[in-house]
């Protein structure tokens, strides 16, 4: 028997061990030292993992008898997840202390969840994928309900748990169907069985595929599997919502892409339809539902649904160009969305989170820097120049045109016009309205400012010089096309 | 390769960045912001004059070209260049910006730093859109105009400013997004977004029609053409004077410039096909808005309606596709840019003093403000197209060009020349002549030295363009000739163009 190869999985293993180590430290050390120490150590562990991911030798490498695979695509997605996690941990420090949820379990749970995401991204087998998925989800349920004495927070956690459990069931059912029709759980085996399936296998595998992708779409919060998103976003503590908005989506989309271009490449027509349907539904639902929201977190929830729609547009095109567009979109989305939430993390009034639209009134006078950064993020989310959001949209719209889907591109444009309205309304409130009651000063921190300023700079920079990022994403996408 | 053009475009942005970084006492910051903005815009104007002096009048094609890769994968480039058409629009934008800063010197009292920043960003975007030779770059500048204008209207505007700002933004945005879609489709067909490449390639007629319509709607909103002009009324009425001037003087021209730069050369066959549509819309605009202008009691609205009517003239001239018509249209645009800007400044002068836009509240100002009455008269006459002023040459050439193509269009547009006289003269009479009834008008001061400083260059230009238009017509001739030969080619090839249009095109080809 060949020895176990585990070196390619070094980053994931390191992160898993680090989170366990942090858990031990948290239990043994004095509480007053863990409140700040564990998040910082956690961020450090994530940073080391990021370095390990980036430093890993280029090219495809398998580990654990083919259960695990790492390649350029995985590195790209993992880097985004890790960056998002580091930023949310650091930016949430002050917020968590202010909300009284600065317990050491929070960063440990984030780390465990990130480990699950990395496992999902690098899975090369339905079993390792499912383990990764559950490892990602379980800490998220707890994180959503982390503010135990808040009814909204516990409601968010419970809602997420119940619906997520259902979706996991769907996913498992799909996976077992696929196993039944292809006699294997590894992506290669499934792909091999589906290259030229007989009629029976084709039907069964398509049913399995639809169930499996429905489960993924749930984690992705793509419409029509989005019902949980607004409530969970609104109920969770903002520091957790910031993490929700980026990490799980990147991981789920990466899995979707890996499945689509790997094992399901024989069923291209089937998954194209699924991606197309999810894309259209997400664009429409996300766009129109956000118009009436006055709670910023709910608005961002719907906005994230519509952005998932845009990212799926790249996938629906079904080409390498489209996948590249999707990766660029995810990258830009990570920065603009994180930036938005980090700004929101610094807003509180009378000890409560300031999360309604009217709380932002006159922000340009009280906190000009935050208002300017938020304006940049909203412009980018709306896809207006001079921000990276324009190119992000362009790079998924063009592949859709190339793939002969002008209808999808037109829908995308129409929905971004709709989206402009509600993003612009926030800008209006910040700049045109008079400030209300003063904001609490003790929520905002220098770390937050540094992070959102950095994110704003990245969003502007990627607009001025988008070329290198596009080539990095292109190289990453290329690894899925041998 | 010189980087003069980039410098002219991005220097205001740099100035804006410096202005935004100003710190200290509120009063000092406001004063420094104003001076920084003024100096930046003056330097930019000086640099843009270098563009004019360095411009080779006889050379066809683009000059001061700068080219660099931007997104190599999709062949999107940073491509700048100007020809005789764009040169004067850049000058118009760089001239009006410092004048706007001077005129609003004492008007803006709150958030001066942000105000100057918005003006600087706006200048960058305006100049950039006249110099961009890449569709994506153009889109960036074209759309970049929206946000500073949105802020200018929404923060420093009148009572209904938020409504006006949203109306302006959403109207323009719909147009811009249609254009984005068309640009994506063009990128898909051509494999590049370079405008110079698009100008020499041929697209299938079906695609041309669709893309033409998408671009046209976008530009028609900016121009603004009837029936998508309604945003203008709210925007100009509510906006502060500087923004009103820039919207009506420069932003409208961006739309008309788009017609010249994209619509005709890139889609010649579709242009030929849609000429009757444009003529119909323009003639309606010219006559309808002139009639509406007669009934206005609000002076800013009246000028705004007259602006729509004048831009109707411009679109007629552009789509005659004849040398006289197109040159006349461009000259009319420049003249309109100066005259309508000056008229809004005149209105601003009055509104500053009395705080009312109602025409009926004025009368007999000639007694208390003789200097103002004189200046106002010159611009009123220029707006009517009196010989010797800038308005005459453009209008004359446009009507001349229109007669070659379509007698009906020419006759109907000539009718409007009479209508303009009706409402402008009545407007002038009601405000300046008559007896000085209202007691609060007795104490009005005549033009201050600052206002005189602003009106002086505009007066000079009005007469310069009226008496010796050759300094403006000569540099644009090669570019216009090239444009027309491309456009006429489209008309001659088009099977769907109406017979008389084609006949006119062919006859124009025979007798150049």
Uncertain stretches of 5 or more adjacent residues of chain B: 508-512
Please, what is the oligomeric state? heterodimer
What is the number of domains of chain A? 1
Determine Rg of chain A (CA atoms, Å).
21 Å
**Average pLDDT, all residues of chain A:** 89
How many DSSP helices of chain A?
Answer: 19
Number of E strands of chain B: 2
Mean pLDDT of chain B comes to: 83
Describe the global form of chain A: globular
Any key phrases for this structure?
heterodimer; A: 482 residues; mainly alpha; two-stranded antiparallel ribbon; two-stranded antiparallel sheet; 19 helices; B: 512 residues; 3% strand; globular; disordered C terminus
Give a verbal description of the structure.
- The complex is a heterodimer of chains A (482) and B (512).
- Chain A is built from 19 helices and 4 strands.
- Chain A has helices at 10-28, 31-55, 72-99, 105-122, 126-144, 151-182, 187-193, 199-220, 228-235, 238-261, 268-290, 296-317, 320-345, 363-366, 368-382, 388-402, 406-432, 446-464, 467-478, and strands spanning 61-63, 68-70, 348-349, 352-353.
- In chain A, helix 13 packs antiparallel against helix 18 (446-464).
- Chain A has one domain.
- The mean pLDDT of chain A is 89.
- With 482 residues, chain A is an all-alpha fold.
- In chain A, strand 1 and strand 2 form a beta hairpin.
- Chain B has a domain at 268-512.
- In chain B, strand 1 (63-71) and strand 2 form a beta hairpin.
- In chain B, helix 17 (390-405) packs antiparallel against helix 18 (407-432).
- A two-stranded antiparallel sheet of chain B has the order 1-2.
- In chain B, 60% of the residues are buried.
- Chain B has helices spanning 4-20, 26-53, 84-103, 112-131, 135-144, 146-156, 161-190, 195-200, 205-222, 230-238, 241-266, 268-294, 299-320, 323-354, 365-368, 370-384, 390-405, 407-432, 449-467, 470-493, 499-510, and strands at 63-71, 76-82.
- Chain B is mostly helical.
């Amino acid at each position: 028997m060949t020895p176990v190869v585990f070196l390619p999985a070094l980053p994931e293993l390191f992160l898993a061990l680090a989170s366990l180590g942090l858990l031990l430290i948290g239990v043994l050390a004095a509480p007053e030292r863990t409140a700040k120490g564990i998040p910082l150590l956690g961020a450090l562990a994530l940073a080391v993992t990021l370095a390990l991911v980036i430093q890993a030798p280029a090219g495809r490498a398998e580990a654990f008898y083919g259960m695990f695979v790492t390649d350029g695509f995985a590195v790209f997605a993992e880097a985004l997840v890790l960056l998002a996690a580091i930023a949310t941990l650091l930016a949430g420090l002050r917020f968590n202390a202010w909300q009284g949820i600065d317990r050491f379990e929070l960063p440990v749970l984030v780390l465990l969840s990130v480990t699950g995401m990395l496992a999902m991204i690098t899975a090369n087998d339905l079993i390792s994928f499912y383990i990764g998925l559950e490892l990602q989800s379980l800490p998220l349920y707890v994180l959503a309900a982390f503010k135990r004495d808040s009814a909204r927070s516990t409601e968010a956690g419970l809602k997420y748990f119940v619906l997520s459990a259902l979706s996991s069931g769907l996913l498992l059912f799909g996976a077992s169907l696929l196993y039944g029709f292809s006699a294997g759980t590894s992506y290669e085996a499934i792909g091999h069985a589906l290259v030229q399936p007989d009629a029976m296998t084709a039907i069964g595998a398509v049913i399995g595929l639809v169930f499996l992708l429905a489960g993924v779409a749930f984690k992705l919060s793509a419409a029509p599997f989005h019902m949980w998103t607004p409530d969970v976003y609104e109920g969770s503590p903002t520091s957790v919502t910031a993490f929700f908005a980026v990490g799980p989506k990147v991981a789920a989309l990466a899995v979707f892409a890996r499945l689509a271009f790997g094992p399901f490449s024989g069923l291209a027509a089937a998954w194209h339809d699924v991606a197309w349907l999810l894309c259209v539904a997400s664009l429409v639902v996300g766009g129109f539902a956000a118009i009436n929201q006055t709670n910023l977190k709910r608005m961002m929830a719907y906005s994230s649904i519509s952005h998932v729609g845009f990212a799926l547009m790249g996938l629906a095109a079904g080409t390498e160009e489209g996948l590249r567009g999707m990766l660029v979109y995810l990258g830009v989305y990570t920065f603009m969305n994180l930036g938005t939430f980090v700004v929101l993390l610094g807003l509180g009034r009378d000890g409560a989170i300031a999360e309604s639209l009217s709380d932002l009134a006159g922000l340009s006078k009280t906190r000009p820097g935050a208002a300017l950064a938020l304006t940049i993020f909203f412009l980018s989310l709306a896809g207006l120049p001079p921000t990276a959001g324009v190119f992000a949209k362009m790079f998924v719209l063009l592949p859709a045109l190339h793939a002969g889907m002008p209808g999808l591109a037109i829908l995308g444009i129409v929905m971004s016009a709709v989206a402009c309205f509600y993003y612009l309304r926030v800008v209006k409130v910040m700049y045109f309205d008079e400030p209300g009651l003063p904001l609490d000063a003790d929520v905002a921190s220098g770390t937050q400012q540094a992070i959102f300023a950095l994110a704003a700079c990245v969003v502007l920079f990627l607009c001025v010089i988008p070329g290198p990022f596009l080539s990095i994403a292109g190289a990453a996408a290329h690894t899925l096309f041998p | 390769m010189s980087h003069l053009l980039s410098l002219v475009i991005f220097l205001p942005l740099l100035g804006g960045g410096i202005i935004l970084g100003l710190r200290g006492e509120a009063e000092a910051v406001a004063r420094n912001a104003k001076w920084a903005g003024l100096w930046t815009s003056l330097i930019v104007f000086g640099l843009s004059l270098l563009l004019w002096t360095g411009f080779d009048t006889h050379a066809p094609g683009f000059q001061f070209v700068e080219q660099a890769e931007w997104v190599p994968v999709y062949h999107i480039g940073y491509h700048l260049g100007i020809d005789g058409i764009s040169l004067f629009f850049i000058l118009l934008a760089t001239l009006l910006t410092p004048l706007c800063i001077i005129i609003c010197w004492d008007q803006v009292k709150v958030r001066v730093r942000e105000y100057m920043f918005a003006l600087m960003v706006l200048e960058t975007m305006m100049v950039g859109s006249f110099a961009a030779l890449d569709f994506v770059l153009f889109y960036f500048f074209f759309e970049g105009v929206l946000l500073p204008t949105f802020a200018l209207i929404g923060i420093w505007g009148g009572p209904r400013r938020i409504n006006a700002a949203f109306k302006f933004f959403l109207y323009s945005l719909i147009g811009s997004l249609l254009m984005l879609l068309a640009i994506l489709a063009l990128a898909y067909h051509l494999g590049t977004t370079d405008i110079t490449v698009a100008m020499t390639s041929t697209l299938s007629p079906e695609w041309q029609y669709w893309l033409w319509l998408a671009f046209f709607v976008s530009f028609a909103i900016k121009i603004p053409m009837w029936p998508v002009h309604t945003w203008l009324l709210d925007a100009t009425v509510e906006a502060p004077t500087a923004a009103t001037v820039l919207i009506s003087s420069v932003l409208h021209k961006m739309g008309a410039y788009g017609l010249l730069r994209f619509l005709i050369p890139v889609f010649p066959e579709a242009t030929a096909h849609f000429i009757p549509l444009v003529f119909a819309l323009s003639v309606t605009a010219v006559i309808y808005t002139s009639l509406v202008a007669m009934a206005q009691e609000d002076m800013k609205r009246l000028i705004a309606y007259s602006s729509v009517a004048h831009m109707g003239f411009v679109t007629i001239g552009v789509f005659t596709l004849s040398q006289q018509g197109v040159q006349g249209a461009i000259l009319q645009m420049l003249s309109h840019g100066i005259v309508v800007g000056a008229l809004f400044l005149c209105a601003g002068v009055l509104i500053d003093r009395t705080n009312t836009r109602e025409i009926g509240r004025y009368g007999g100002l000639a007694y208390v403000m003789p200097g103002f009455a004189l200046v106002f008269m010159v611009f009123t006459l220029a707006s009517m197209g009196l010989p010797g002023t800038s308005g005459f040459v453009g209008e004359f050439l446009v009507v001349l060009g229109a007669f070659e193509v379509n007698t009906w269009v020419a006759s109907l547009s000539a009718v409007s020349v009479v209508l303009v006289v009706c409402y402008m003269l009545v407007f002038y009479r009601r405000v300046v002549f008559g007896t000085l009834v209202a007691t609060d008008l007795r104490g009005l001061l005549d033009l201050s030295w600052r206002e005189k400083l602003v009106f002086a260059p505009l007066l000079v230009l009005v007469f310069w363009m009226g008496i010796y238009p050759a300094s403006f017509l000569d540099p644009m001739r090669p570019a216009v000739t090239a444009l027309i030969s491309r456009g006429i080619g489209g008309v001659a090839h088009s099977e769907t163009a109406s017979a008389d249009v084609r006949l006119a095109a062919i006859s124009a080809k025979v007798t150049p």
